[in-house]
């Protein structure tokens, strides 16, 4: 499943979870949920919630979450993204970010915006959208899908030095799966700079040094990219690498492409 589909499905799941309790509402630090009929965020992050007993104000820092009704523009933006109408998606989602600050939907829209920017080839804007998301919702830095989406956007934007620093940090303190992904992305950086020989070594390191990582998507990607790089170098071992991928990781999204090389 590609990144765009994952992000869209995750956003859809978040919407379903939110719909289980009707918005608008505010969640207090003790977990109490205060229901209302209208909600408004002030510029300083305070929330005005209209309740049956009048308007209640919750200063920023004195509530865990404030949620507005889902805006129609959010669904419209998601539909435009699915239809690859990227300019429309950007316009709609940026509108949600602007009008629903502090009210949950700004963060949800910012999860989708990078995919729209990448779709139209503006990787630098995608990186900025991720950075804005992390400002709005710092906890999203710990979301693996979002974190790797950010790194892929940085790769596309050729922001190699900061990306390498991130990969170093992941390799040092992340899971084995994330360390394997980081090693493969090092190869991507080398390929993007036309250093095919170094890229091959990086991809092979994932295949050899992370054999304990059995995820077919991770290993399939490393094997396929290693084979591609070997093929570029006219190395006869390329076909063996394609064959190894097909035999050892048949469930990999790359397996079908590898079969076509045999």
Instruction: Give a short account of the largest sheet.
Output: 3 strands, antiparallel
Give the proportion of residues in helices.
55-70%
- Trace the largest sheet across and list its strands: 2-1-6
Spans of at least 5 consecutive residues whose pLDDT stays below 50 are 16-20
Question: Count of helices?
Answer: 12
Output the helix-strand order.
HEEEEEEHHHHHHHHHHH
Mean pLDDT: 93
Name of the CATH class of the domain at 158-262 = Mainly Alpha
- Estimated radius of gyration: 22 Å
Structure classification:
mainly alpha
Strand composition percent: 5-15%
Separation, N- and C-terminal Cα atoms:
24 Å
Indicate the CATH topology of the domain at 158-262: Serine Threonine Protein Phosphatase 5, Tetratricopeptide repeat
* CATH architectural name of the domain at 158-262: Alpha Horseshoe
Task: Please provide the count of β strands.
Answer: 6
Globally, the shape reads elongated
Provide a descriptive summary of the structure in words.
This protein is mainly alpha-helical and 262 residues long. The protein has a domain at 158-262: Serine Threonine Protein Phosphatase 5, Tetratricopeptide repeat (Alpha Horseshoe), CATH 1.25.40. Helix content is 62%, strand content 9%. It has twelve helices and six strands. The strands form two sheets. Strands 2-1-6 form a three-stranded antiparallel β-sheet, with no helix packed on it. Strands 3-4-5 form a three-stranded antiparallel β-sheet, with no helix packed on it. The longest helix has 17 residues, at 3-19. The two termini are 24 Å apart. Residues 16-20 have low confidence and may be disordered.
